[in-house]
Write a structure and sequence with these properties.
mainly alpha, DNA polymerase, domain 1, hpI Integrase, Chain A, 2 domains, 3-stranded antiparallel β-sheet, Tyrosine_recombinase_XerCD
């Protein structure tokens, strides 16, 4: 490990960055240095601009991926290297397209979960939907996080390093109890293949893709799709946005409010003004005139 990499790592540690964020930032800076074949402290603003053009035009990365790379470089040059130029001006972020997720109906969720054949995979994917968890939160659940007395699930150190509680559905509790009787997990609720480690996100994603193929659904399905479905189905059932924000663990209410654009009872409840127009009387074509020439 180089001295610069060690220093950047320590800078992130003292700011208590999430481990995944630290690893991602270090990887992005490593790719940046490898592109030029030089240490980042020998590179400047023009090099960064060249790299941004490369990511956009040659690598053709999605705006979200470019955001991650730019965030890592901003931290490196503004915090670790303490450059005196404003990184926000030198490192502009590309505009992200505003896309709405494709939402599964309740019937499609049931059809999908019915095709998850392995008991552990069925339990964790059901948990993602029933509690609205991120996959990173679901894989980190411990057996002690299931509180059947209060009927809540404790999410420890979710995104943003925040604890929260979500509802424990009686149906989910029944599924988890049936799963526990078969597998008897001890520490991690969903243990992985490696001893002492939880199941990986990749393993859950693979199981999700397999079940989606078996289900015959035309819509894309990922573990995060189940979280989206949880939020929209709650909203359509009458839950208020503030409650959904707390359940999802969103920092901003504006993030949760985006689901208002998807919920059919919010978007489609109002009749189209076309329905107010009087029905036009049928117009008969004019009678054909005889032709003599």
């Amino acid at each position: 490990m180089t001295q610069l990499r060690q220093r950047m790592s320590e800078d992130m540690q003292v700011r208590n960055f999430a481990l995944n964020t630290q690893l991602s930032y270090l990887q992005q800076v490593s790719l940046f240095a490898r592109y030029f074949g030089k240490s980042p402290d020998l590179l400047g603003r023009e090099d960064i601009r060249t790299y941004q053009v490369y990511l956009t035009n040659e690598k053709k990365l999605a705006p979200g991926s470019i955001h991650t790379a730019i965030a890592a470089l901003r931290f490196l040059y503004s915090v670790t290297l303490e450059r005196d130029w404003a990184p926000e001006e030198v490192l502009p972020l590309p505009k992200k397209p505003q896309k709405l997720p494709i939402i599964l109906s309740p019937e499609e969720v049931q059809q999908f979960l019915g095709c998850v054949l392995e008991v552990k995979h069925h339990a964790i994917l059901t948990t993602c939907y029933a509690a609205g968890l991120r996959i990173s939160e679901a894989v980190q659940l411990k057996t002690t996080d299931i509180d059947s007395q209060r009927m809540v699930v404790r999410v420890e150190q979710g995104k943003g390093q925040k604890d929260r509680y979500v509802m424990l559905s009686p149906k989910l509790l029944e599924i988890l109890r049936d799963y526990w009787k078969v597998r008897r997990p001890v520490a991690w609720l969903f243990p992985g293949d490696r001893a002492g480690q939880p199941i990986t996100r990749d393993a859950v994603g693979h199981a999700c893709a397999k079940a989606r193929d078996l289900s015959g659904l035309s819509k894309p399905v990922t573990p995060h799709s189940l979280r989206h479905a949880f939020a929209v189905h709650l909203l359509e059932a009458g839950a208020d946005v503030r409650t959904i924000q707390l359940l999802l663990g969103h920092r901003s209410l504006a993030t949760t409010a985006q689901y208002l654009r998807i919920a059919t009872n919010k978007v489609c409840a109002t009749s189209s003004p076309f329905e107010l127009l009087p029905r036009p009387a049928p117009t008969l074509p004019p009678a054909a005139k005889p032709q003599y020439f």
